[in-house]
Design brief:
alpha+beta; two-stranded antiparallel ribbon; 13% strand
């Protein structure tokens, strides 16, 4: 399996206090332990992720380090899309 592929770890039920339990496999995979802070990230009415602040920092550092190649890939992608149109 691709290490960067999305994986569904299961589901969680929201309790009366708005709390959820993150599935054990997901907690183990990302190293979330009792007492850790997590960020809930979303856009509009959709949640797109739950992760620790250090994971967000790692993602941002990775993106920052590769920003020029990401921009080049986007430019190339845009050119490909305009050819298909």
């Amino acid at each position: 399996m691709d290490a960067h592929a999305f994986k569904l770890y299961g589901s969680a039920t929201v309790g009366p206090k708005g709390q959820i339990v993150i599935p054990a496999e997901a907690r183990e995979k990302v190293g979330i332990k009792p007492g850790d802070k997590v960020l809930v990230i979303g856009k509009g009415k959709h949640l797109i992720g739950i992760c620790s602040p250090s994971q967000v920092e790692a993602i941002l550092n990775h993106m920052s380090a590769h920003l020029s190649s990401l921009r080049a890939a986007l430019k190339t992608s845009g050119k490909e899309e305009s050819k298909d149109a």
